[in-house]
TrEMBL record:
GO terms for biological process: potassium ion import across plasma membrane; regulation of monoatomic ion transmembrane transport. Residues 8-148 form the Potassium channel inwardly rectifying transmembrane domain. The gene is Kcnj3. It comes from Chionis minor (Black-faced sheathbill). This is G protein-activated inward rectifier potassium channel 1. Its main location: membrane. The keyword Transmembrane applies. It catalyses: K(+)(in) = K(+)(out).
Length: 321
């Protein structure tokens, strides 16, 4: 078993980091909403708390500043005096008035009077700013919570791929399954072979991507994923594995990236699950154990056998040979 760097981990995470962006990093700020959604949860919560805390303190300070400039703080307890905001005589009371106004609590003890035009303008500004901040941050949190990334964790891939004969043809196969009862609508499977190669012109391609046909022409790539399915790639003259044999498999270096896409039935959002198989995870001359059995009125799936394989007689030669 040879450990080497993967392009895509088994859990679907891509091992690619972008560096030396230079001035191109400003593009992240031009799409700040998407950048905020892509951040990790701890940074989202930190930005959420800091934004509201700073906005509350700034607005409360503005209300306190109006009361201070008008002299309301010193005459707040004078019944004959009409302040800008009744019963605001220090910063905590100004902060409480802002919170009552922003949260539409309105206890009735603190209220703005009609003899304060600057307070009316600030009240309108506070209402607009509060609506914008709420729409931006709450919308960001809602989108992040509704992302279907967690749905991909209930989509399973077999730990290994196998090479054996099916219908008299040598095939590369792996298994996919759905742990939930809710369906994946319009589920589609795609495979990419990632392998280094050199062109006839002498150009070296370190991570060249090649499509593996898993039934695109016949519609077999469109899955009805209600039970575990075995995905099959026929190795023929058009396949990049045309010259692959049991012996050459030991010296090859490649990675098969599998991408399963579909629409989550409950939310209507597109979900994508990924995994990969290196040459060490391709078992020559193996077949997957059956996992379906007929019970009393229904079919049962035994997921304890989902990854299990057994050896079958398979020629050790390549299709070309």
């Amino acid at each position: 078993h040879r450990e080497r760097q993967r392009f895509v981990d088994k859990n679907g995470r891509c091992n690619v980091q972008h560096g030396n962006l230079g001035g191109e990093s400003s593009r992240y700020l031009s799409d700040f909403f998407t950048t905020l959604v892509d951040l990790k949860w701890r940074w989202n919560l930190l930005i959420f708390l800091l934004t509201y805390t700073v906005a509350w303190l700034v607005m409360a300070s503005m209300w306190w500043g109006i009361a201070y400039l008008r002299g309301d703080l010193h005459r707040a307890h004078d019944d004959a005096y009409s302040p800008c905001v009744a019963n605001v005589y220090n910063f905590p009371s100004a902060f409480l008035f802002f919170i009552e106004t922003e949260a539409t609590i309105g206890y009735g003890h603190r209220y703005i009077t009609e003899r304060c035009p600057e307070g009316i303008v600030l009240f309108l500004f506070q209402s607009l700013l509060g609506s914008i901040v709420d729409a931006f941050l709450i919308g960001c949190m809602f989108i992040k919570m509704s992302q279907p990334k967690k749905r991909a964790e209930t989509l399973m891939f077999s730990r290994a791929a196998v090479v054996s004969q099916r219908d008299g043809k040598l095939c590369l196969m792996f298994r996919v399954g759905n742990l939930r009862n809710s369906h994946m609508v319009s589920a589609q499977i795609r495979c990419k072979l990632i392998k280094s190669r050199q062109t006839p012109e002498g150009e070296f391609l370190p991570l060249d991507q090649c499509e593996l046909d898993v039934g695109f022409g016949t519609g077999a790539d469109q899955l009805f994923l209600v039970s575990p399915l075995t995905i099959c790639h026929e190795i023929n003259s058009k396949s990049p594995f045309f010259c692959l044999s049991q012996r050459s498999l030991r010296s090859e270096q490649f990675e098969i990236v599998v991408i399963l896409e579909g629409i989550v039935e409950t939310t209507g959002m597109t979900c994508q699950a990924r995994t990969s198989y290196t040459e060490d995870e391709v078992l020559w001359g193996h077949r997957f154990l059956p996992v379906m059995s007929l019970e009393d009125g229904f079919f049962r799936v035994d997921y304890s056998q989902f990854h299990a394989t057994f050896e079958v007689p398979t020629p050790p030669y390549s299709v070309k040979e």
